[in-house]
Write a structure and sequence with these properties.
The chain is built from 8 helices and 7 strands; from the N terminus they run βαβαβαβαβααβααβ. Strands 3-2-1-4-5-6-7 form a 7-stranded parallel sheet, with helices on both faces. Helix 2 links the parallel strand 2 and strand 3. Helix 1 packs across helix 8, helix 3 runs parallel beside helix 4 and helix 4 runs parallel beside helix 6. The longest helix has 29 residues. 40% of the residues are buried.
Length: 247
């Protein structure tokens, strides 16, 4: 297990799915975790309650990544109390499955603002602090569809492709400040995001994976923990694909 002892980590979209698994893994690795959620308030409060009873240190904050001022208030609040942020994991993301021509303006705006624009705004705030600290680690959760594109998820794929290039560009820009920037590109992982598929569709998709199964959330989380730890101190600008050799 990677060692994140003494580090403060901000994780967006940490109440469920891959984000929840990353919260779990980071806490076990010794980090002080601050995670955000948008709609899952009851679930988030339960996560905090359960972990605090076990002696872990964490916070949950309701943050709408479509709202610039909300992001700024969250950042100011964290810095005023913690003083610094060592790790940022940009995990929050949404997708809407359907034909591109049927997507509404509201659908497109929500996906782009949540997956891409909000990520850039929060990263910019935190990067300014990391530059002052002369250290930091940023991990973006992209997707294999950001590399190849996915039918009926065109806007989602576009935002993830943007995140991949944002990762590589920012790593070059911030390297001289001792700030590492990497990304994970998960394949088909067992989360709520693919629960819309019926059993037959899941079997057909599973047949496309050479390992012949969907990935587990904790398998992605362990990769996240490694990339954010000192064990990966010379790893930056990389996109690690976690897809069971699907692509």
């Amino acid at each position: 297990m990677a060692d994140l002892s003494g580090k403060t980590a901000v994780i967006t979209g940490g109440s469920r799915g891959i984000g929840r698994a990353i919260v779990d893994e980071f806490l076990k690795s010794g980090a002080y975790v601050i995670f955000t959620y948008n709609n899952s308030e009851e679930q988030s409060n339960e996560i905090v309650k359960n972990y605090k009873e076990k002696g872990f240190f964490l916070e949950a904050h309701k943050v709408n990544l479509n709202d610039y001022n909300n992001i700024l208030r969250f950042y100011d609040d964290v810095i005023s109390r913690r003083g610094s942020i060592d790790i940022l994991v940009n995990n929050a993301g949404i997708s809407k499955v359907g034909l591109f021509m049927d997507m509404t303006k509201e659908d497109i705006d929500e996906i782009v603002e949540t997956n891409f624009t909000g990520t850039i705004y929060l990263t910019q705030f935190i990067v300014k602090k990391m530059v002052m600290q002369k250290k930091g680690c940023i991990l973006n959760i992209s997707s294999i569809w950001g590399n190849t594109g996915a039918s009926c998820e065109s806007v989602y794929s576009a935002t993830k492709g943007g995140i991949t290039m944002f990762t590589k560009s920012l790593a070059k820009e911030l390297g001289s400040c001792n700030i590492r920037v990497n990304a994970l590109a998960p394949g088909v992982i067992k989360t709520e995001m693919n629960e819309w598929m019926n059993d037959e569709e899941k079997r057909e998709l599973c047949d496309e994976v050479p390992l012949n199964r969907f990935g587990e959330k904790d398998e992605v989380a362990k990769c996240a923990s490694f990339l954010c730890s000192d064990d990966a101190s010379y790893v930056s600008g990389q996109v690690l694909t976690v897809d069971g050799a699907m692509l």
